[in-house]
Design brief:
Rossmann fold; Alpha-Beta Plaits; single chain; alpha/beta; 7-stranded mixed β-sheet; 20% strand; 4-stranded parallel β-sheet
């Protein structure tokens, strides 16, 4: 047998036009997006317009330039760092004689390559179908069947109508399945809240180091790579935070500038973890030259998914790439943790993050000693489950004196259960 062939990257011409409504995008990010989708940028086409051309977005002159660039580099794909309307996409494909992809289609292609779980694949497929549906016109060779004249009418339904009906049926089926996922996640969150287990969600711009930090905190093996959208499928792990006890940590999909609305809608069941969290760790690449714009992008996505009001702690990661930077904890005017500077890859500053987590999650932390009777083993187990036991010592009557460090609200819930346990035992 011969050696397996390695897929060659698809050559593409990247198009980014300055419309005066945003800062010049970083071409490196777009190159990385194309590479993540399996492509290679062989040429770039720029320019400036006051507004997009309604027919081709870039105008007839730029279309000619783009056609020349495609021929010169033997590229077979034009990728726009913009959102194109379905008609603009079709007009460009006819004029250029090659495939045209906009920014949304490119990001969807990356997600399709990276999704690993059944849920992740369903979410990506839903976003792809929503994107494809208005673009069906002109993509089928069967569409000429709908014509007037004797003998030229179709059999009652055009291929276009058939395709639309089948896609809508598939979209409905996927949404039903994702609704079940959403309900299951909601039940899981409700159960954790009943047990008083705080939920902390990692969020941030793609490739900011969320998965690396997640692995450092949980000793998990979530895939972490120096590439865009390395993580799509959410992962939950339980960690122990000093003074707090058990905390559920959730890794999420990375955000990006102009994140397609189809993806936000499709991944809503996943992103709702952030909206229902007790705390969001906003992971920031401290060495990112575009840090301010990307931080604003993350804030916009969090607002879109209903998580703008969730308490947030910024984590400036990758300080090992900054000259002379050292781990530190910044506080606001009231003395509350505001930002932690660390390097997840090197494990530097993690103790500061644990300290900040403890203070953010439990402003009502109490230290207390309580007595547990011999029949209160269930309460003792719950205290250990909450990782609230600092020390314990046996008493002469077979009971236990327990030293606790635990948030007041969670302790009250456990003590209420202790009272119910004693009533049950005395019956």
């Amino acid at each position: 047998m011969g050696r397996p062939t390695i897929a060659q990257p698809e050559h593409a011409v990247a198009v980014a036009i300055d419309l005066g409504d945003r800062r010049d995008p970083d071409p490196r990010e777009f190159d990385d997006l194309v590479a993540a989708a399996g492509g290679l940028v062989t040429a770039r086409l720029g320019g400036r317009r006051e507004r997009p051309d309604p027919g081709t977005f870039i105008g007839s002159g730029k279309v000619d330039e783009l056609r020349t660039a495609l021929a010169a580099t033997k590229a077979d794909l034009a990728i726009f760092d913009h959102q194109l309307s379905p008609s603009q996409e079709r007009n460009l494909e006819r004029a250029l004689g090659c495939r045209v992809l906009d920014r949304t289609g490119l990001i969807l292609a990356i997600f399709a390559r990276r999704a690993r779980t059944h849920e992740g694949r369903l979410q990506v497929e839903l976003a792809q179908l929503d994107h494809l549906l208005p673009r069906l016109v002109g993509r089928s060779s069967h569409l000429a069947r709908q014509q007037g004249g004797i003998g030229l009418r179709g059999p009652g339904e055009t291929q276009l109508e058939t395709d639309r009906r089948l896609i809508r049926r598939r979209i409905d089926a996927i949404r039903r399945k994702l609704d079940l996922v959403q309900r299951r996640r909601g039940l899981g969150r409700a159960a954790r809240q009943r047990r008083g287990v705080p939920i902390v969600v990692l969020a941030g711009y793609t490739n900011a180091g969320k998965s690396t930090l997640f692995n450092a905190l949980t000793h998990a093996d979530v895939p972490a790579a120096d590439q865009l959208f390395a993580t799509l499928d959410p992962t939950l792990r339980r960690i122990a935070v000093p003074g707090i006890g058990a905390v559920v940590l959730s890794d999420t999909v990375g955000f990006i500038r102009e994140l397609p609305h189809q993806l936000v809608a499709a991944f809503r069941a996943t992103l709702e973890e952030a909206a229902a969290a007790d705390l969001i760790l906003e992971i920031v690449d401290a060495a990112d030259p575009d840090l301010e714009a990307r931080t604003a992008c993350v804030a916009g996505v969090l607002e879109e998914i209903g998580a703008a009001e969730v308490p947030r702690l910024q984590v400036f990661n990758k300080i090992d790439r900054l000259s002379g930077a050292a781990p530190r904890l910044d506080r606001d005017a009231q003395g509350c943790p505001r930002a932690v500077w660390l390097s997840a890859a090197r494990g530097a500053g993690l103790s500061l993050l644990y300290s900040a987590l403890g203070q953010c999650l439990s402003p009502d932390l109490v230290r207390r000693r309580i007595y547990l009777a011999p029949q209160q083993g269930r309460t003792r187990a719950r205290l250990y489950e909450a990782m609230a036991v600092v020390a314990e010592s046996p008493t002469d009557d077979g009971g236990t004196m327990v030293d606790l460090c635990i948030p007041a609200a969670r302790l009250q819930r456990i003590l209420d259960d202790r009272t119910r346990d004693m009533h049950s035992a005395n019956r």
